[in-house]
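Hello,

Our lab assistant flagged a job as stuck in the queue for most of the afternoon. It eventually completed. Since we weren't sure the result was trustworthy after the delay, we are filing this so someone can double-check. Below is the sequence as submitted and the structure that was eventually returned. Let us know if re-running is recommended.
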Amino acid sequence: MKRLLIVDDEQPMVLGLSLLIKRHFSQEYVIVGTASSGREAVERDAQLNPDILLMDVQMPGISGLEAIKTIARKGNPKAFILVTAYERFDIAREALSLGVCDYLLKPVSRDRLELALKVASDYLDRLNLLAQRELELRESIQKLTPSLVRALFDFLEHGEGSHECSLIAGTLGLQASHGVMGIAAFVPADGDVSSMYRRFSDIVHYKSEAVAGPLRDGRWCSLLVPLSSEHDPKAAAIQTLLEHAMPSPGKVEWSLHLGGPVPLEELARSFKEAFQHFVGQTGGNAPSERNSAEEIQHQNAGPLLAGFSAIIEEIRKYRFHAASRSFAAWIESWSAAAAGSLHLLHSAEAVLAMLASVLYSAGAISISRYESAMDFEDLRGLWAAGTGEAFAARCLERFDDLLKAVQHAKPYSNTVRAALQYIEDHYAEQISLENAADTIGVSPARLSRLMTEETGKGFARTLIEYRMQRAKELLRTTGWPVRRVSEACGYPDANYFSRLFRKIEGMSPREYAERAEEDDNG
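-- returned structure --
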């Protein structure tokens, strides 16, 4: 229910609007207060926090337009409806520039008021939907970040892929022209390197704009400090911050070695300088002198990552099938040669995470599908077992599973994509064309026409097909009784569901489940 504030210096107008709203629209709107001046409107808005304000233009003191400006500057989502006795173009133009939803002439009719309130409500609903999508997008980027960070440091630490580094840095939001690379080495007195590394990473993450890389060799990690220019003192400031927050370097428990400031595309050079300082001061081994199994794999990282940028670029440009071919060639060539390589695992995760993120941002997959796509435990298990062929097959299978959603990602209009997303998110509920149209903000007739033109079938047929697809998946994988599957797919009447299923699939749900079980058992 939307909260209304009525603002007018004419008491009969306030009473008339209140009567109309209470008599005809009380199921959708509640009047939380009234005001008789622009100043009182600002004060009452702060006290009552209404959703919609019906605002007179001409009032003593602060005008309605000035009050709207003041309230809008606070940043809270509001919808404004202007009410005036004068039809003046200059007022209408200024009102539109302030984001006013509608413009009512006195005396206000019931039908015209209903339309204005509907426009204002739809505007607020769209604002809330956008805010929700923005929050979900931020969460999706947050989940994507660890895989991208690992891939970024893989490139930087092996002097490979300046273009790839810039690409990943941009995706991570590192808007900088220059940067400094560093190496933090850990030698804690209690031997607990992991705890010290976590403390270091937390300080970097929460108290600076820098990025800490993964722990290497059980004793060091890289540090990337983005700079606005070559002379930006940020690296020195972060070093000071760490010296105060971490155990004292005088205790020889940790040390930080920085390279020089360089343009962002030359960060590998700064890392090389930092690594030379690290080797010189700690007695560490240069990469060419390493002899552990993991270090030998590090030496192969450059060629292993060579095809990574092309795959990422194809995904970003919606060339999904080209990306699929490139990914298949890349993963198959390295799955046997580097089955136990962390670089292979991290890069494969980054590719799949990027694909899921792009598809989710395009509205092609739901938030639940995105979240499942960001779970890489199956890949990590195969990687840990050293089964190169199985690892490659699972990577390709996951890529192909996501590609099945691509048919909804590109060719359809935003309205149809939103309708398809609505079906995917709400198929288990009692929904209709009218529900979807109302949520999206278009008329049912327009939505029906667009879906028929773009998909070749209407809303109802699309909903049925999606529900049947989900029903078959549940029948194959869960062992649930037909009634439970029926309810999970939006059909409270299991008999109706069974008849519809048989009509479409040529067999009953029970027969379908039995055949699926026989196929699984060979």
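-- support follow-up --
The delay was a queue issue, not a problem with the job. The result is valid. Residues 282-302 have pLDDT under 50 and may be disordered. The two ends are 56 Å apart (CA to CA).
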